[in-house]
Design a protein that fits this description.
It is globular and about 50 Å long. It has 117 residues and is an all-alpha fold. The protein contains six helices and no strands. Helix content is 62%, strand content 0%. The longest helix has 23 residues, at 89-111. It has one domain (3-111). The relative contact order is 0.13.
Length: 117
């Protein structure tokens, strides 16, 4: 899925799909996705839009977070994201690791409970 298609389908104000469609596809509400996206962008520059060595835009923050959320929601292997999101297996795995570390770092105090006996 190209960045433009993904943005038009799910993230632009007049997107093709509804909030309910988003929830079914990503297993979370749209505003939760946007909150996570905003938080990870503030913590880690990896999730900010950059340009590659050829001067072209690299994967957008939305693409990176979308790939990881879909991998987690559906148990999709990293090598399957190449067909749908044009992201290599190594980039998917790196993005997955980066996001998981940030999620724990940002949300552990609020959502991670101490183990009980």
């Amino acid at each position: 899925m190209t960045r433009a298609n993904m943005m038009n389908n799910y993230f632009n104000p007049n997107s093709m799909y509804t909030e309910e469609d988003f929830k079914c596809r990503f297993w979370m509400m749209h505003h939760v996705f946007e909150c996570v996206l905003r938080d990870v962008q503030q913590v880690n520059p990896y999730f900010r839009q950059k340009r590659d060595k050829a001067g072209r835009p690299s994967f957008s923050p939305h693409q990176k977070v979308t790939v990881v959320i879909r991998m987690m929601a559906y148990g999709s292997p990293a090598n399957s994201m190449d067909e749908t999101h044009d992201m290599s297996e190594s980039t998917c795995l790196d993005t997955f690791e980066q996001l998981c570390v940030i999620i724990v770092q940002v949300y552990k105090d609020e959502y991670l409970c101490e183990p009980n006996q």
